[in-house]
Design a protein that fits this description.
The complex is a heterodimer of chains A (about 325) and B (about 400).
Chain A (H helix, E strand, L loop, with lengths): L1 E4 L5 H14 L3 E4 L5 H10 L6 H13 L5 E3 L2 E4 L8 H17 L4 E2 L2 E3 L6 H14 L3 H23 L4 H4 L19 E5 L2 H4 L8 H7 L3 E3 L6 H7 L10 H16 L4 E7 L3 H16 L4 E6 L5 H18 L1
Parallel strand pairs in A: 1-2, 1-3, 3-5, 4-6, 7-8, 7-9, 9-10
Chain B lengths: L7 E3 L6 H12 L2 E2 L7 H10 L6 H15 L4 E5 L7 H14 L5 E5 L6 H9 L7 H29 L7 H14 L4 H16 L10 E7 L1 H5 L7 H7 L2 E5 L3 H5 L12 H8 L11 H13 L4 E7 L3 H17 L3 E6 L5 H19 L31
Parallel strand pairs in B: 1-2, 1-3, 3-4, 5-6, 5-7, 7-8
Classes of the chains: A alpha/beta (about 325), B alpha/beta (about 400).
């Protein structure tokens, strides 16, 4: 049986885990191609028009996989840590895709529910039970697949912490790598803040990473800092955030400003992103308080290349002159 | 926090919540500075100081706060929550913006009772010197009873307006009835006032022979509860001869119980109805929107109107799923999105078109008798003595 993993949303966080786990269950895994014009516009056509651009792209990736696979892997990631949620859209994603499945002609969906909100250890049983229920696997086989998957994920995260970016590690992410050597070196350190599914999707953010590296800036992303440090730094807010991925963003800006390891920050947020629209206030306040230049870049499916290039060039030039 | 006798508290507006709070703060002995009624000016102030794509309720809240602080309030009380909807984090963001604007005030985040009873009590104790748990409990009970009576009046008005013989009678009767209610103090007085005020609304001159449409209103709670944010949509529809029911009420929404006394159908039942389409809580009213739409369809309603602020995450999920519900249960749904740019005329045109469509769809079928109203949990014979959350009708 061939299972499709759409190259969107949590793909950038958990691909090694999911791929290894599904392969361990004896399935063939197929990922959709990188986001391109066709994928995004097919997603935009189907999806509700108020959704954020990464979710629209997700619809498109599902459509791109439909003829190649026997089932689509769309997990319901409710929570990845205690007392927190992910974004509501991840909670409803399987239902949203299922509602459009008939009109899109999608294959059946595999939707394991992952919820660590009440008890972190639950997660293990949710996956083991999923494997046993859907594929009739023995408990030992499921545990073996799970453990190998955890190892793969740990290796991935270690490489990230060692300074590599998801675009260097995940297959087929060429587009978002610099094509020529940086023109200037020894330049400024820029923190790139935002959701992995936006900043590492070369089509949605117009190769932002490659462009910045070609300008010769030292790019720092949240994944380079140890997860525990980020989570600890994220507690420096008046009330604990209840969205895990926003916590990472908040933690990154708090950590960067605290240690002074960045000269400037570019904050990428998708238009109509719910959680980001609120924490934007706190992030901008934090940057202002620590006198770190910050540029918020709002992106959507209509974002033009020229406008983006002009803005990042101006921002980087400003950083170069500042010192 | 300031000592209780210096506190001048304020809260944002949300429908008739201020009627309940008026009563509650009066009993607690706290001075309550009500923000001026939400207006275009409120919204302008809010937009100016809010993040661009925060949802509309936050922007109106901000306007309310600024106007109330200018009026002399020195303490802000705001409800909290634990997500995943944005609402639970509103307070923090609003406080940050107001402080950056240079306002000085105390900020009280009122977390839900289920997140910790002691913290809940402590928040109230900081407002009122020497408040015992027992007294707080009594006060909350009486204030809630009064709040429910206000909700019942509104609910009855929605049902009656479609039949009123003289345009505007129901609105006038409602105002009169709320005045009667506001004066009631003790529990027996509240009961008597509730009965008298309901009678007042029922006594509106009605044309029971009229052919009315039945429409359910679902969606995000603030948009449903606050007439300013939805251009008084309920009155517009009522005047078009539409019998209305809505699935969210102030006291249902803030009560810790899940039995939806005012709406009449417990939350658990609504969640079961939603399960085939949306099997997990997505925050806000996402699941309730789906479940209530199914419920309205099963009860033979002609159509459903969904209201949401632009960018509302739970409602956007519901909107994505509603086409499937419409198809399966054969019920038309009109989705209306609101933000600061929304104009009244555009909305009215769409409502008129929707009502025309519903009339055409009904064809020759005429419903003369009044539709079966949703059960009112207080008048239920089965559970007159005790409200059990699992009670079904």
């Amino acid at each position: 049986m061939r299972v499709g993993i759409p190259r969107s949303l949590l793909y950038y966080k958990y691909l090694p885990f999911w791929k290894t786990f599904l392969t361990g269950l004896g399935l063939e895994v197929e990922t959709s191609p990188m986001t391109n014009k066709k994928i995004l516009s097919s997603g935009v056509k189907i999806a509700e028009n108020e959704l954020c651009v990464p979710v629209k792209a997700f619809y498109g990736h599902c459509a791109a996989l439909k003829d190649k696979v026997d089932a689509l892997f769309v997990p319901r990631v409710v929570s990845v840590e205690e007392r927190a949620y992910t974004c509501p859209k991840f909670l409803g994603l399987p239902d949203m895709i299922a509602a459009a499945a008939d009109s899109m002609g999608l294959p059946p969906l595999l939707t394991p529910k992952l919820n660590q909100r009440e008890k972190p250890s639950e997660f293990k049983w949710q996956l083991i039970n999923f494997a046993r229920r859907e594929f009739g696997l023995g408990r030992l086989d499921a545990v073996a697949a799970l453990e190998t998957a955890k190892l793969a994920q740990r290796r991935y995260q270690d490489s990230l912490a060692a300074g590599r970016k998801p675009v260097d590690l995940l297959p087929l992410s060429r587009l978002n790598r610099p094509r020529r050597r940086p023109a200037r070196t020894g330049a400024r350190r820029v923190g790139l803040l935002g959701h992995p599914y936006n900043i590492y999707d070369g089509y949605i953010t117009q190769n932002l990473i490659a462009r910045l590296e070609e300008m010769g800036v030292d790019l720092i992303v949240p994944e380079m800092t140890d997860h525990h440090i980020l989570m600890k730094a994220a507690t420096d807010v008046p009330k604990q955030l209840y969205w895990s991925y926003e916590k990472e963003i908040m933690g990154a800006i708090n950590h960067w400003t605290e240690t002074g390891q960045v000269d400037g920050v570019i904050y990428v947020l998708a238009f109509a992103c719910g959680p980001d629209s609120l924490i934007q206030v706190l992030i901008e306040h934090r940057a202002r308080a620590h006198k770190v230049p910050l540029m918020s870049l709002t992106i959507d499916e209509h974002s033009g290349e020229a406008g983006l290039v002009t803005r990042i060039e101006a921002f980087v030039d400003m950083l170069m002159r500042k010192k | 926090m300031r000592p209780p006798d210096q506190i001048k508290i304020t809260t944002p507006h949300m429908g008739n919540l201020h009627l309940l709070l008026d009563d509650l703060f009066g009993r607690l002995g706290v001075e309550y500075i009500k923000p001026p009624r939400s207006s275009t000016k409120t919204l302008q102030l809010g937009i100016k100081h809010s993040p661009e794509f925060a949802c509309l309720p936050l922007k109106i809240n901000m306007g309310n706060f600024i106007q109330a602080l200018d009026k002399g309030a020195n303490t802000i009380a705001m409800a909290g929550g634990h997500g995943p909807c944005r609402f639970g984090y509103y307070g923090i963001v609003e406080e940050r913006i107001l402080r950056d604007l240079g306002y000085e005030f105390d900020f009280l985040m009122l977390e839900p009772f289920s997140d910790g009873a002691w913290a809940f009590y402590k928040s109230f104790a900081s407002l009122s010197a020497g408040l015992s748990i027992r007294r707080l409990w009594k006060i909350l009970q009486v204030s809630f009873a009064k709040g429910r009576a206000f909700d019942r009046l509104r609910k009855r008005a929605l049902m009656v307006r479609a039949y009123e013989a003289n345009h505007g009678d129901t609105g006038r009767a409602l105002k009169e009835a709320e005045k009667i209610m506001a004066g009631a103090g003790t529990a027996p007085e509240i009961e008597a006032a509730a009965a008298a005020s309901l009678r007042l609304i029922d006594s509106v001159d009605q044309d029971r022979e009229r052919d009315v449409l039945k429409v359910g209103i679902v969606g995000e709670f603030y948009l449903l509860l606050e007439p300013f944010s939805n251009f008084d949509l309920e009155e517009i529809l009522g005047n078009m001869g539409v019998y209305l029911e809505r699935c969210v009420w102030v006291t249902d929404w803030i009560a810790p119980r899940r039995d939806n006394k005012i709406f009449g159908y417990p939350k658990q039942m609504i969640e079961e109805k939603a399960a085939p389409f949306l099997s997990h809580n997505v925050g806000g009213e996402g699941r309730e929107t789906i479940g209530s739409t199914v419920l309205f369809a099963e009860r033979g309603f002609d159509g459903v109107v969904q209201l949401l602020p632009f960018g509302c995450m739970p409602e956007n999920i519901a909107t994505s799923i509603l086409p499937k519900v419409q198809q399966k249960h054969d019920i038309p749904v009109l989705t209306l999105t609101f933000d600061e740019q929304t104009g009244r005329a555009g909305m009215v045109t769409r409502l008129e078109a929707f009502v025309d469509l519903l009339r055409a769809r009904r064809g020759g079928r005429r419903i003369i008798a009044a539709p079966e109203p949703a059960p009112d949990r207080n008048s239920c014979a089965a559970c007159e003595r005790k409200h059990v959350s699992s009670c079904r009708f």
